[in-house]
Specification:
This protein has 78 residues and is mainly alpha-helical. It has 2 helices and 2 strands, in the order βαβα.
């Protein structure tokens, strides 16, 4: 299950809760396959596109994903 920041660069909605029904959270993940993982391209806004605690759950791969991206970017620079 992959998500990204909903808005950026001055395009924030007037109502902060407009996207709340689309939030990736534990309840949504409970409907996914038991081996499903959560991914986010970072930076993330806890409490907006993702719940406050989901990034810290065992199903989250965001920190491994971020580390992999770091190494790819370093190799491109090299």
């Amino acid at each position: 299950v992959y998500t990204d920041t909903w808005t950026s660069m001055g395009f924030e909605p007037k109502d902060e809760n407009v996207f709340k029904p689309l939030q990736v959270n534990e309840e949504l993940m409970s409907h996914a396959h038991k081996d499903a993982i959560f991914m986010h391209c970072m930076p993330m806004n806890r409490g907006k596109e993702v719940s406050l605690s989901l990034p810290d759950q065992p199903c989250s791969a965001i920190f491994q994903q971020s580390e992999n991206r770091l190494h790819v970017q370093k190799s491109l620079l090299l």
